[in-house]
Amino acid sequence: MSLRALEVLKGCDQVFAEFYTSKLIDSNVDELSRLIGKEVRVLERVDVEEGEEVIEAARSRKVAFVTAGDTMAATTHVDMRLRAMEEGISTSLVHGVSIFTACASAFGLQPYKFGRTITLPFPEKKFLPASPYEKILENKKRGLHSLVLLDIREAEGRFMSASEGVQWLLDAEKRLGGGLMQADSLVCAAARVGSPTEKLVAGYAAEVVKMDLGPPLHTLVVPGKLHFMEAEALVKMAGAPPEIIKE
Q1: Confidence at residue 154, expressed as pLDDT on a 0 to 100 scale
Q2: Sign of dihedral through CA atoms 67, 70, 76, 82?
Q3: Exposed (0-12), middle (13-18) or buried (19+): which is 230, by Cβ within 10 Å?
Q4: Most CB atoms within 10 A, among 80, 182, 207, 237?
């Protein structure tokens, strides 16, 4: 968390937070509360998306709303800011570090070579969409890398692991047969990006699917066409097979 963010939180009358879109890594709400010297009230998804508690508090007090990552990235929180503006409530945004850029940087991949970001949902009996597979395949055909976010069920304490994500793609390959993910396909897996316990691996799907990268959050990258420097970075920084440099 940046110094500016800490200063803002310390100067607020009330602090709300949500961690259903992401989670704090190497920290927790109690530590954040002690750091800023005030209670942090954690809201559920329904409270944020349908409730008025944050807006109601902001009508008469200086309020902060905290998330992990970059607050407006891949969330519906822009709706909250718009609602506040419609009520004449002044707002400002303190940007955080987003997985959208941090993951690419960690692996030494070029951010402008990424295509559309994809999220893999937990498999359900009546919900197993083909669209995530198809979008990654589309990126791959264009030579673009795919940032693959993994499902979070914070209320249930469920966070999809990198291994589960690779298995999701291997299973989708069996169903759909587009040629995206074979046993010898290169895939990158990251855990707890930006934390002191960050772990990065790059290898063939048959190997990565067996790996335990430890606690969440995990993220995958399915590489497209690699620049020689990107390939070297994956070998030296994430343990990718050396032969990818020659490809």
Answers
A1: 83
A2: positive
A3: buried
A4: 80
- As a whole number of Å, the CA-based R_g of the chain is 20
In SS3 terms, the chain reads as CCHHHHHHHHCCCEEEECCCCCCCCCCCHHHHHHHHCCCEEECCHHHHHCCCHHHHHHCCCCEEEECCCCCCCCCCHHHHHHHHHHCCCCCCCCCCCCHHHHHHHHHCCCHHHECCCEEECCCECCECCCHHHHHHHHHHHCCCEEEEEECEEHHHCEECCHHHHHHHHHHHHHHHCCCCCCCCCEEEEEECCCCCCCEEEEEEHHHHCCCCCCCCCEEEEECCCCCHHHHHHHHHHHCCCHHHHCC
Strands 14-17 and 186-191 turn out to be unpaired
Query: Strand pairing partners for 84?
Result: none
Q: Residue 75 has what pLDDT? A: 65
CA dist 140 and 126 (Å) reads: 28
Give me the residues of the chain with pLDDT under 50, please.
none
Could you tell me the domains of the chain? 3-86 (3.40.1010.10), 99-245 (3.30.950.10)
Give pLDDT, residue 74.
Answer: 59
